[in-house]
Amino acid sequence: MTARGALKVVGFRPDGLGIRLQCLLEAMHLSDLLGAGFAVVWPDPVEGVEHHAVRPAIETFTQAYCDAHVVERPDAGAYAEVPQSITDLSDLAAVADGTGGWMVRRANVLGNLPETLRKPAGGGFRRLFDSIQFQPHLSAAIAQADDVPLPETPVALHLRAGDIIYGKHRFGARFTRKVISLPIARQLIERLKEQGRSVVLFSQDPAVAQLFREEYGVIVAADTAPQGDPVAQALFEIALMARCGEVYAGNSVFAQIAALIGESALIDPEAVFDRARQAKLIEFDLFRHRRQKAYPALHTAFAAWSGAEPQFRRAPERAMRLVEVALKYDPDNVCYVLKLASLRCRTGRVAEANALIDAELADRADGRQMRLRALGLLHRAGLVGAGSVLVRDRKVLENAAETDGGAIAQLMQDVRALEGRLRRRDHERERPRP
Fold this sequence. Notes:
Structural class: alpha/beta
């Protein structure tokens, strides 16, 4: 059996700053509980995380901290995964026998612990956060956040954008619950202001911050944040958000880590407005109040899609109107094209659906690129467990292709041809080599 003091708890996530830090903090907490060491794997930023603030370890932590706690990615099986269910610390000890310790790969492994073991003693997660030896300019950013004057009982509102609004995930349209749409943000601000609360707005988009600053007088975190270094600004905002007793946010690890450090209440907008209510509020905002042009175009598109999503099954006509707005403000989003074509088929407008496919995937100057993206999306929609939002839509389009022909039939024929090529490629790869 490995001596407890020789074991380590290692935090490892290769993506954004928030989830990396959360895995590190949870590894530090587990190491305290277990009397073990701790370390973190901190890969250099890679392609695909351009909307996250991440720098190499040596640019994030001091040299001494890197020497003591930053390690290379271990071999598979070198560390045990933290169990899904833990009744006491002996469960953790049992899985680590014969390994180097434990690996924290997921955010919120704390939820696997008994309630009595979830909070660090003597200052909570803020103590652990303060013990991380960041580079001096990053520590200064955290200290700067601690010195910002705030009113009593401030409330944080986190409006993430990044990879969901502007990055690669916008073309998959799967992550609506990670971001608060701007019409819902407006409703939350109005509700909080009516309660006499002071709202501190955390927004990645200067135009959005300006809009809500001018309309509601919210405190904008970026106004007092250090400029020029995205990591310094991110750590400043985490520390400032942690000073707010309530944090309204979508499913964002950035907000989760701030709430963890500050022991703040993390509030999902769905706890205030359920999905059906949000859909109605978005419709009211975009159509009755005619605010489609009030927001940056991709925010308007995201809001419309968010409002449509709860209505795809039960109210396709209403959903279709919103998806038309989403496509208008994000005309390069092939996912919106395919969803709109499917909704038109479902509502008996197959000719309009065929015209849409022709217009967007053939007649445009970049129609070939759009078509290739459509083939990829529809292919993934046919894969079991792929998590595509277009699974049902592929079936609708397949049925329309069989009964009505036209551009949809050609598109689905191209999908089948692609899948045939992929199967042949996989078959060739599996053949034994002479």
